[in-house]
């Protein structure tokens, strides 16, 4: 539920709210064979994403700011979190994977962020969320469109 003095970033909080815990994600994608450096990088980035996402979810439990300075400070912290999530999402979108585990990792992030992103933002082809969806689709189809 939004705070009484809800900040413009309330929608950004909702955008990135996810339901999967970091411990679950850390246990995914571990295979018996040696992973490529791209797959290793993808796992590292997805772990970063879920850590940041969990921190953003936890921000809903922050104490209610009582002064204008506290509101500004909270707003800046939230903006930093959202910017960090956006940056790591773009990096994930740039990682190609041919491994089932990589596809699953990308798909879980898409499941977590896309529904709220569609509701809250006017997404463009350049948005991190759409780039991630397109990256997953390219991985699955190996870039073939027909």
Characterize the structure shown.
There is one protein chain. The chain is built from 6 helices and no strands. By secondary structure, it is mainly α. The chain has one domain. Helix 3 packs antiparallel against helix 4, helix 4 packs parallel to helix 6 and helix 5 runs antiparallel to helix 6. The protein is elongated, with a radius of gyration of 17 Å. 24% of the residues are buried. The N terminus is likely disordered.
Short description:
The protein has 6 helices and no strands. The chain is mostly helical.
Instruction: Provide the helix percentage.
Output: 55-70%
Q: What fraction strand?
A: under 5%
The overall pLDDT, averaged over residues, is 74
Number of domains: 1
Structural class: mainly alpha
Q: Outline the biggest β-sheet.
A: none
For the secondary structure, the number of strands is 0
Rg measurement, Å: 17 Å
Query: In one word, what is the shape?
Result: elongated
Contiguous uncertain segments of 5+ residues: 1-34
Give the H and E element order.
Answer: HHHHHH
- Distance, first to last CA: 44 Å
Count of DSSP-assigned helices? 6
């Amino acid at each position: 539920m939004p705070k009484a003095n809800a900040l413009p970033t309330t929608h950004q909080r909702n955008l990135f709210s996810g339901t999967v815990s970091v411990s679950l994600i850390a246990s995914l994608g571990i295979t018996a064979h040696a992973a490529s450096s791209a797959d290793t990088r993808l796992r590292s980035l997805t772990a970063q994403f879920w850590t940041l996402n969990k921190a953003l979810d936890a921000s809903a439990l922050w104490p209610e700011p009582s002064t204008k300075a506290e509101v500004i400070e909270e707003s800046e912290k939230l903006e930093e979190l959202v910017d960090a999530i956006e940056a790591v999402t773009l990096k994930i979108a740039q990682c190609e994977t041919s491994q089932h585990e990589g596809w699953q990792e990308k798909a879980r992030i898409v499941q977590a962020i896309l529904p709220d992103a569609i509701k809250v933002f006017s997404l463009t082809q350049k948005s991190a969320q759409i780039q991630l969806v397109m990256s997953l689709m390219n991985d699955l189809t190996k870039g073939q469109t027909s």
